């Protein structure tokens, strides 16, 4: 064979190899639009609230005041509630526990009404759930994870100082929970209270100022910032708030456009990932919502086009200003979740109308994936369409393996399955983002060993295996706080990219990365997190770690 022919074949092999490698390193969504899977046609209830727990179970619950659900309480038990507006004796369940590993679920017993309530996970991994409606509006409920069948809701009546209906929660650096707002509640309180004085509520006039004729300030967006203060967004306005001194440090510019973003206009919000490998610049992102008159006009059945804009705000700048961009379609009642690779998924919702009974039309079945670090104008990717609409009272949470669990949708006062445009939905399904495509299996890392407890500022190591290792700079270690999701807002959600110290090869396809725990509780409040290793944009499955 001639020298020229040998050179030609060598060049051809190089081109083929380079092309394959380049394709593998392309963003996942350039090659696939994700995949939907129906998990259950009915779990017996419509999923109004969701929270992933440290034992890989998801607690799901609805409200109690609409009549019977489609799942019975175990052991022929019944709930007796003389204050219930619909059914004094109810032998059906309004909460379930879903097991990710087995795809099974079982009924739980909730006594008082949890309608439009809020929640947070404490540092010990237990869920504290606050408020609701009617006889549940002053109630605190707890659920301690267990691997058997004995754990259930425990309720503490009259434990909240004020009625909490449509309030928001945020876990704090000291492990307490701040509970902000609610219908006609322009105040906040803490759980647990450290003293009698801290068990009362504190006035926050900002919440009164942001209430318009149709409220549009319920479920305010709360984000704990790296300096320990709170970012609070309601309607179109936002503040930097020192909750320790009950002091507004500064007010930020109103989000452009004049359209409200909180319930019932129901946009969504995230604190973008915090990277401890660089100077920390906290940045808020808010997407979707409805026009100011959307709720009013929905009553005569005029459904206005939802908001199509997103805004990003770097709040530590001397003169912070919103940077706006457009989604591929308008959305209201969508959920925003931070994925393990640092992208943001925007899922569920409608193109027109607003939150509330019978108040929206034109479901948006295609999720969006947003790359915060992408080129402006090319950050959104449209995903595969779901087979069913998810409108008012739908939910979504991130799972341990990187899937997104989706459920709910009940835009009716009662369960209604016939004769309506959008029947009550009791199903449960999952969406697998593009990074879970088998085409990336060779790049997908698998965590072999890591610490169960990670301490602040302390070094730790993580051992992983991967079939095809690309480069040292393509590896990052991230922790994600699972969120309490309801009404288009994922409370307590945050991602921290941990400081990486070094990476070394310790065997065939086996590597060890040394990293450092979060720098302080203000960056990552104490508690249980999902730890992911990301290799060239492809995440491992998450493992549970405790930050303390």
Automatic annotation (TrEMBL):
Endpoints of the signal sequence: 1-21
Source organism superkingdom: Eukaryota
Stored InterPro entries: Gal_Oxase/kelch_b-propeller, Gal_Oxidase_central_sf, Glyoxal_oxidase_N, GO-like_E_set, Ig-like_fold, Ig_E-set
Pfam families: Glyoxal_oxid_N, GO-like_E_set
Residue ranges annotated for the Glyoxal oxidase N-terminal domain, each copy included: 48-435
Coiled coil: none
Galactose oxidase-like Early set domain span: 444-547
CDD domains xref list: E_set_GO_C
Assigned keywords, A-Z: Signal
PANTHER family named in the record: GLYOXAL OXIDASE-RELATED PROTEIN, SECRETED PROTEIN-RELATED
Entry protein name: Aldehyde oxidase GLOX1
């Amino acid at each position: 064979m001639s020298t020229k022919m040998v050179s030609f074949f060598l060049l051809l092999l190089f081109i083929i190899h380079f092309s394959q490698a380049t394709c593998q390193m392309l963003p996942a969504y350039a090659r696939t639009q994700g995949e939907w899977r129906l998990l259950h046609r009915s779990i017996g209830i419509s999923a109004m609230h969701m929270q992933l727990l440290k034992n890989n179970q998801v607690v799901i619950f609805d409200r109690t005041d609409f009549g019977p659900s489609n799942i019975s309480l175990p052991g022929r038990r019944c709930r007796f509630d003389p204050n219930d507006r619909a059914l004094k004796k109810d032998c059906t369940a309004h909460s379930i526990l879903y097991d990710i590993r087995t795809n099974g679920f079982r009924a739980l017993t909730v006594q008082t009404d949890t309608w439009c309530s809020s929640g947070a996970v404490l540092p010990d991994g237990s869920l504290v759930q606050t408020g609701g409606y009617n006889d549940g509006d002053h109630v605190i409920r707890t659920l301690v994870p267990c691997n058997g069948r004995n754990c259930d809701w425990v309720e503490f009546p009259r434990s909240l100082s004020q009625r909490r209906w449509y309030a928001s929660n945020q876990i704090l650096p000291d492990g307490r929970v701040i509970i902000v707002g609610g219908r006609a509640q322009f105040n906040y309180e803490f759980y647990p209270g450290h003293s009698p004085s801290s068990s009362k509520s504190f006035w926050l006039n900002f919440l009164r100022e942001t209430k318009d004729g149709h409220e549009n300030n319920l479920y305010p967006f709360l984000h704990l910032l790296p300096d320990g203060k709170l970012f609070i967004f309601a309607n179109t306005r936002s503040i930097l708030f020192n909750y320790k001194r009950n002091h507004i440090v500064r007010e930020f510019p109103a989000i452009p456009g004049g359209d409200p973003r909180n319930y019932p206009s129901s946009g969504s919000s995230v604190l973008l990932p915090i990277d401890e490998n660089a100077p920390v610049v906290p940045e808020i992102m808010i997407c979707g919502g409805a026009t100011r008159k959307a709720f009013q006009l929905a009553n005569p059945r005029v459904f206005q086009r939802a908001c199509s804009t997103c805004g990003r705000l770097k709040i530590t700048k001397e003169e912070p200003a919103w940077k706006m961009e457009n989604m591929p379609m308008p959305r209201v009642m969508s959920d925003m979740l931070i994925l393990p690779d640092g992208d943001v998924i925007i899922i569920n919702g409608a193109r027109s109308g607003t939150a509330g009974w019978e108040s929206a039309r034109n479901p948006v079945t295609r999720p969006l994936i947003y790359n915060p670090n992408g080129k402006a104008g090319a950050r959104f990717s449209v995903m595969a369409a779901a087979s069913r609409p998810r409108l008012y009272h739908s939910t979504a949470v991130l799972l341990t393996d990187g899937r997104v669990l989706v459920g709910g949708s009940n835009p009716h006062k009662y369960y209604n399955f016939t004769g309506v445009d959008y029947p009550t939905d009791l199903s449960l399904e999952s969406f697998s983002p593009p990074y879970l495509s088998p085409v990336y299996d060779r790049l997908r890392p698998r965590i072999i060993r890591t610490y169960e407890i990670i301490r602040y500022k302390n070094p730790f190591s993580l051992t992983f295996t991967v079939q095809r290792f690309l480069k040292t700079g393509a590896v990052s270690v991230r922790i994600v706080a699972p969120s309490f999701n309801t009404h288009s807002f994922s409370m307590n959600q945050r991602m921290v990219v941990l400081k990486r110290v070094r990476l070394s090869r310790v065997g065939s396809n086996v590597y060890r990365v040394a990293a450092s725990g979060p720098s302080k509780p203000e960056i990552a409040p104490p508690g249980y997190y999902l730890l992911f290793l990301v290799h060239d944009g492809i995440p491992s499955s998450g493992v549970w770690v405790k930050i303390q």
